[in-house]
Each structure stands twice: as C-alpha cells, then as structure tokens.
Design brief:
Low-confidence stretches of chain A: none
Distance between the termini of chain A: 53 Å
Structural class of chain A: alpha+beta
Radius of gyration of chain B: 19 Å
Strand order of the largest sheet of chain B: 4-5-10-6-7
Number of helices of chain B: 10
Shape of chain B: globular
Number of strands of chain A: 5
Shape of chain A: globular
Structural class of chain B: alpha+beta
Oligomer: heterodimer
Mean pLDDT of chain B: 97
Chain lengths: 160, 285
C-alpha cells in the first residue's frame, strides 16, 4: 500500500488541504479534491490541452503533472479569471467573437491565452497562431479563437 | 487512463537523487524531470515504474552556463529556456531556432533538454542537436561520474548508454565559432507533431568553400547521427545547389529508415534527402 500525501494546493489564491496518492494527476486533484471543475480533462496524455492551467504564470498541461509536484505553486484556473460578475477580457472576447461552440476546450484555451498574453502582450500573429495550435478545438476551426485572443489582447494593452 | 501506483521521492540534492536512484533502480525506479514524455506513457500504462525520483526540487540541476568552450545544460533546464538565445553567437541562435519545433508551448514550459536526451525518442530535436554537435552527456550514479560522447550514447529507439542507476545531470554542447552557419529543417504532418524527418547542418566558410561540415539526421533511423558521407560531399566545395544536392543524395544512400503504419522506408528516405537539402539552403541563406 502506498501512503497518501498530505499537501496544500494554492488554487486561484486559495489554499486547499488535500490528501492524495502520488499518482494523482494535478488535474484530478484540482477537479475532485479542490472541487474546481472548470478545468476539463480531455485526452489525459498531454495532447489536447483542455486541462491547461497556469503554474506560476506559465501554461502547463495539468494532466502531465502530479499533484504532489504542485505544492507551493501558484495554480490559476479558469475560475480565477472573472472578477465577480465582470468577465476577464478574454472571456468577453470569446463570447463576442464566437470563439467557442461546445465549450469543452474553452477553459484550456483561456488559460493558454492568458499565460501567453500576460507574458507577451504584443505577440505577433505568427507566434500567436503557433501558440494557439497547442490546444485542440473541434468546433470553431480556430479562426474565431484567434480573432477573440487578438481582440482581447488589444483591449488588455489599451487598459494598461 | 490513470498512471499505475508508484512511490514518490523528491530529493533536494544531486547526491540524494543518485542515492535514491541506486536504491530503487532494481524496482524500475525512474527519474521524473519535466514528465512530458514519461507521464503520457505512464497514462497509457506502457510504463509502470515502481518509483519516481522527482528531480525538480534539485536546484543545482537548473544550471545553464558557459564553462570555457562548452555550454552546460543542467537536467532541470526546460525547453522554454532556449526561446531566446542563451549564449551569444550561432549556438544560441541555433538552439532558439530548433526549440520552436519541439511540441507546443505548454509542453516546452515543463519538458527539459536533458529529459529529452535521456528519453531518446528517434524524433527528438535535442537528440539530433546532441548528435550533430557531438555533445557530451554527464552521467552520475552513487558510485561515480562519467562523460559519454553522443556517438556512444544513443543506442536505438528510446535506448541510451545510461545505466538504470545513472542520472543524466548535464549535457555539454560545444560553443560554435562565430562564423558558423547553420540550418535546421524538419517535416511533420501537423505543427508540433513528432517529426518524420529532420536535418541539422552546420559549416564554416574558408576561402569561399565549406569547411568543418556537420550533417545530422533525426527521426529517420532508430537514433540520430551524423552522416559522414554527406559531410564528405560538402567539404571543400562552394555552397550551392550542386554541393547540396550531392549531400542530400549521400544522406538518402546512407540511411536505413524506420518504417511504420503511415510512413514507408522509401518515403522517409525521400524526406531525409529533402530536409537535408532545405537545411543546407537555410544555412547558406
């Protein structure tokens, strides 16, 4: 029998005390132990990007990290984007540009785009397309996602 | 699927890491660095390590520094570190050009250079770099440290000279002379996919002709390697179509390509020639 580990995960600034097997992936811990189900699980082997969250500001696949590895890290998920009733500029732009249809991939795209725009607000079109190719969307054909992220980037830069 | 159960170890020093590895090696203990290759194969249950030795907490392994004429890349240096040149001159630019071909951005924020080399996937870009530049791999165990040359390190598909109880602590790349030209070209069906073929070439010009050519091909054979026949086809000739075609043809003749369900050996041989020629054209541009 392998002993469970007691650890504290910091999700969107809030501490969660969890008791998990070492093999517990971060995304399972975020969803099932912290109750933050906005982060979706798609392929569970690092291909689809639905589970993308920010770890200390960087987008990562949370299915490819174990929860025990994230102790002490600042974890940000889609639940942390809106401020109360006010949507994050990226969320608003996804609505306005029809950047989602079924919505399964959306939390991953939002966190991917958040991480990238916070780091590189003036990212070139070529680099943006390269980054957005990281995640899979089977509804939109990507055009509207690119448009949405561009619109949000403009708003976020103007709001600085 | 969920990975099978394993015992988890999080050493804080290199010594502690290799001692732990020595204890658990017999029970299929594995090193966990970025986890971008190991964790997926654990999720598929293709790997069921009894122990994981997580080296992410070993600060000494995050070292990325120039030591004399070498760039030393520690085991925890992530792919993303190379997005901007890490050293002045052609080596830094070469690594920055290559890193953009490695999977996707969120993979590059976690995956590590040394992890990729230790995993030794035939389609690994860093393995091709290591082979092309004759990198030196530093392997440490509880009983000692040894340096392994690239040509002795890669032994086949996901197979290296590393022993089970050895940790790849560092890869050393030679700093390239300032006038070194380089080109890297890879082919895959979609951006970020595993490459079906890639070529990395470097050379210098002396009195208008090619000197010190290096031509390495990855993703084509079980392991990346320099293709001597192609290098001979380039040495002493002026860079241009004739020399490049000759080198590409030499690659095509020299390789024994892998075959899989979607890619025949003859197609891969064709790709190997094309990526070689395009990498050479890039170097000359």
């Amino acid at each position: 029998m392998i002993e469970k580990r007691e650890l504290t995960l910091i999700v969107n600034g809030r501490d969660y005390s969890v008791r998990v097997d070492p093999r517990r992936t971060l995304v399972d811990a975020i969803r099932d132990d912290c109750g933050q189900t906005g982060t979706h699980i798609g392929c569970e082997h690092g291909v689809c990007g639905a589970c993308t969250v920010l770890i200390d500001g960087e987008p990562v696949r949370s299915c490819l990290m174990f929860a025990v590895q994230a102790e002490g890290c600042q974890i940000r998920t889609v639940e942390g984007l809106a401020k109360g009733d006010e949507l994050h500029p990226l969320q608003q732009a996804f609505i306005e540009n029809h950047g989602l249809q079924c919505g399964f991939c959306t939390p991953g795209f939002l966190m991917l785009a958040t991480g990238v725009l916070e780091r590189e607000p003036n990212i070139s079109d070529e680099d943006l397309i390269d980054v957005l190719a990281s995640n899979l969307c089977r509804c939109t054909g990507y055009e509207n996602i690119v448009k949405a992220v561009r619109a949000a980037a403009a708003k976020m830069t103007a709001g600085r | 699927m969920k990975p099978a159960p394993f015992r988890y170890h999080a050493p804080k020093t290199i010594d502690e890491a290799v001692e732990t590895l020595a204890q658990v090696a017999a029970e299929d203990g594995r090193v966990l660095a970025g986890g971008q290759s190991l964790v997926p194969i654990m999720a598929f249950r293709l790997a069921r390590p009894g122990h994981l030795v997580d080296i992410n907490g070993v600060a000494a392994l995050r070292r990325l520094a120039v030591d004399g004429d070498r760039l030393s890349i520690g085991a925890c240096v992530r792919h993303a570190a190379f997005h901007k040149p890490v050293v002045d001159g052609p080596l830094g630019r070469l690594l920055a050009a290559v890193v953009r071909h490695i999977a996707h951005y969120p993979i590059r924020t976690r995956g590590t250079f040394c992890g990729s080399v230790a995993h030794a996937d035939p389609a690994s870009e860093w393995c091709a770099v290591a082979a092309a530049l004759d990198a030196e791999m530093v392997a440490k165990s509880a009983t000692g440290t040894r340096a392994i040359a690239a040509q002795d390190f890669f032994r086949g598909i996901m197979t290296t000279a590393l022993r089970e109880d050895e940790l790849l602590t560092e890869v050393r790349l030679p700093i390239l002379p300032a006038d070194t030209r380089f080109g890297f070209y890879e082919f895959n069906r979609r951006a970020g996919d595993f490459a079906l073929a890639m070529a990395l070439v470097t050379y210098r010009l002396q009195d208008g002709v090619i000197s010190e050519p290096r031509v390495a091909v990855g993703g084509v054979e079980p392991q990346p390697r320099r293709i001597e026949q192609a290098e001979r086809a380039l040495a002493g000739r002026a860079p241009g179509r004739a020399a490049f075609e000759a080198a590409a043809a030499a690659v095509g003749a020299a390789v024994d390509p892998l075959e899989d369900a979607t890619t025949s050996a003859s197609y891969r041989r064709d790709l190997a020639q094309t990526v070689t020629r395009r990498a050479l054209e890039q170097a000359a541009a």
